[in-house]
UniProtKB/TrEMBL annotation:
InterPro entries: CheY-like_superfamily, Sig_transdc_resp-reg_receiver, ST_Response_Regulator, YcbB. The modification 4-aspartylphosphate is found at D55. This is Two-component system response regulator YcbB. GO terms for biological process: phosphorelay signal transduction system.
Length: 297
């Protein structure tokens, strides 16, 4: 199932650019466009899209006023604000009204695609949470012990990895498998070295020693790329909104903050670094501890 979008912008060129980028990404479809706030309200309430991309400044009414009208009329979709101004007060008002992401004008394809990917990850995460809640609700009459039994390591790990924006990365499955192995043997006093963890995962997948060595290297690379993707996601959120609760919680918890700041600097200066630094063992240890804590609740 893909996302549905409505674009509200008085600039026809911007509307066409955004529509083209969304369609090229394959993330969703455009179910409507509007050239002003009043027209946008009518169109959005008619088609009920998942996501609204809306210009901050429009002649008839600004984006914040339009969003306020939509909220008052019961629309609860996601909003992406399109803006060419850097006024902190207006940006703050936008966040208060429920804006989750900003796209800056002039429109840049790379920025738009990055924002769309994050919105898509958030949508997947929230859909997954709804599914979990519905599943748990069906088990409500079976007692608390049954509910706890159904809360598996895989379920908890998936939610956290979705929050970090990496559930779609191929290495996320390796990470989840390692968490299942570690928590099954949590009575052991020490946390294994990374090399040992990679070898454990590789041995479970392969029998031949030569194949095990190759798989070990492949797992190491997949996990590293996945952790780096999480670091990049946090850095991106930090650049957009340094006070974002997700950034404030996950960035210092899962990463050495100097690594986060370095990645933010690289992104701000538009440097494409593939040799970024991240403490992989810290990431896995923190994930392991957080899963244990959440499973106790």
């Amino acid at each position: 199932m893909s996302l549905s979008f409505v674009i509200v912008d008085d600039d026809a060129v911007s509307r066409r650019m955004l529509q083209t980028i969304i369609e090229d990404c394959g993330i969703g479809e455009i179910t409507g466009t509007a050239g002003g706030g009043g027209e946008g309200v009518r169109r959005i309430l008619e088609v009920r899209p998942d996501v609204v991309l809306i210009d901050l400044l429009m002649p008839d009414q600004d984006g914040i006023e339009t969003i306020t009208q939509l909220i008052n009329q019961g629309f609860n979709g996601k909003y992406i604000m399109i803006s060419q101004i850097e006024n902190k007060e207006m940006v703050g008002r936008a966040y208060q009204r429920g804006i989750e992401f900003f796209i800056h004008k002039p429109i840049n394809r790379v920025e738009v695609e990055a924002v769309l990917v994050r919105v898509n990850e958030r949508w997947k995460y929230e859909s997954y949470i709804v599914e979990i809640k519905q599943s748990l609700a069906k088990l409500g009459d079976l007692g608390i012990s049954t509910l706890r039994k159904e809360r598996t390591v895989r379920d908890v790990a998936k939610v956290i990895l979705m929050e970090l924006g990496i559930i779609g990365e191929i290495g996320s499955q390796d990470i989840i498998s390692l968490m299942e192995y570690l928590i099954e043997r949590r009575q052991e006093a020490r946390f294994p070295a990374l090399k040992e963890l990679y070898e454990i995962a590789a041995t479970a997948a392969k029998q031949n020693q030569k194949d095990v060595e190759k798989e070990c290297k492949a797992i190491e690379q997949r996990i590293r790329r996945t952790v780096m993707a999480a670091l990049t996601n946090m850095a991106s959120i930090g650049l957009t909104d340094y006070c974002n609760p997700k950034f404030e919680y996950y960035a210092p918890l899962y990463f050495d903050f100097q690594d986060v700041r370095m990645r933010m600097k690289e992104m701000d200066e538009e440097l494409n670094s593939e040799k970024g630094k991240a403490n992989i063992k810290k990431f896995l240890q923190v994930l392991y501890i957080e899963i244990l804590e959440k499973m106790k609740r």
